[in-house]
Amino acid sequence: MAIPTVMGTEIEFGIMVKNDPDFDPISSCVLIVNAYREDPDGKILWDYDQENPLADARGFQVEGEKYTPNQQENIARNKTLINGARFYVDHAHPEYSCPEVTNARDLVIHEKAGEVVIEISRREANGLLPDGAQMLIYKNNSDRKGNSYGCHENYLMDRRTSFKKIVEPLLPFFSTRQIWCGAGKVGSESRNHPCDYQLSQRADFFETEVALDTMVKRPIVNTRDEPHADREKYRRLHVIVGDSNMSEFTIYLRNGVTAMILSMIEDGAISKDLSLRDPVRSIREVSHDPSLQRKLIMEDGSERTALEIQNDFLEMVLAWTSSRSLDPVQKDVLQKWQEVLEALDRDPMELDTKIDWVIKKRLIERYMSRKDLAWGDSQVQMLDLQYHDSRPDKGLYHLLVRQGKIARIVTDEEIQHAVYHPPRDTRAYFRGECLRRYPSEVFGVNWDSISFGLGDETIRRVMMAEPLKGTSEFVEELLDRSATAEALLENMGS
Question: Is 7-38+81-416 a domain of CATH 3.30.590?
Fold first, then answer.
């Protein structure tokens, strides 16, 4: 029986500063993260002691040194928020990791809350820049200079499910799911494989099937084995193959369908071998074919389109769900996925209010027609980028939302609430509420622990190895009768 769903996302945002000849992305990232002020003392650390990024899911430890910043750098680069999220500097990008959630609808709410946090930070940071300089933030995946930055999905899985059993169906699934969750992109950054328009912003950057790296020789399936939970019971599947989506509908499907596929894998319900002969080549071929007609070579020598492969996965999910009870969100995800695949078969442009790559393609083609432009014109590339602009008054996605031309999954009120409140049904509730109630007594935080510093006493760490404990059901009454962190620890019997 598959374990309950727990998931989250980590979004790396593109950043630039207009009219700044000395633009430095790292210092600009530090500025934007620190422009968002919730921690009144600014002294809460991110607990790197609890991390092990060199562990490989295939059962070994990769050689290398674990980087741990000094205390001053740690504080400058990391913010843990009262909604349970982490907002921090990752290399040369501001990154927002949403709190753990249990369903795709909450995932949409909290990922979108991250966009609000980013925009609040951008506005605050702009007030600290020299006259004439302006910081811009984009929720996209490429700078058109050969660099790609990620949207990482995370899913809790049962440690008893072998990694090999996970990888085999995921290679064809990830190589083809971009037909409904690609963010769309004008052109290609590969001179050997030019195109006018493609489905995915990330597909051109994958070079191998399975590996630990996320920045060079990027793999379709990442092997990082850092569960942020009880290692004996769980693994965290770290998915780096997806695009940063603007459309709520696309995000909803991206995480909701993938979570169901993973549960099906845990249940041993994969009944078809859909192995591709060359997944790396296939992921690029699918992306470069908005007509969805290209045939992919299967391992057995037969040929199938990406849409046919996705329908094979749908058929297996329908068989698997026929004998089990789904919650309302899962039922809705399944219905919407089926409707999307049917629309893709008829005419992908039917989805021009729902799926990012289709929305963007329709928008750009209409603009090209009005202005008599070609795909290679610089104005068309700028239109592509502007779709991802974080500014509500400038971003083209936001404009389409205001015009009522985008299908919504959640409400603005739910998103705004999630900026300042954690989900109630995961351990993120305990993390966020401790930061809200006892900010001056929290010393350090990680996904699976929180440490308190009480005067001259030794730092006292509370472990949170179970993602579905620390919920409001378990701890709200405890928190309400604990006026201080010291009282909380005493009441916990710590």
Answer: yes
Q: Which amino acid is at 177?
A: R
Catalytic residue among 20, 49, 90, 377: 90
Q: In sequence order, which residues have a C-beta less than 8 Å from that of residue 184 and are 6 or more positions away?
A: 197, 198, 199, 200, 201, 356, 357, 358, 359, 360, 361, 384, 387
Sign of torsion, CA 72 76 81 82? positive
90 is catalytic: yes
Tell me the three state secondary structure of residue 377.
Answer: coil
Cβ-based neighbours of 128, under 8 Å, separated by 6 or more: 31, 35
Q: In angstroms, what is the C-alpha Rg of the chain?
A: 22
Total Cβ atoms within 10 A of residue 21? 6
Dist CA 457 CA 94 (whole Å) = 34
pLDDT digits (tens, 9 = 90+) for 368-385: 999 999 999 999 999 999
- Three-state SS for 464-477 is CCCCCCCCHHHHHH
pLDDT score for 97: 98
pTM as predicted: 0.97
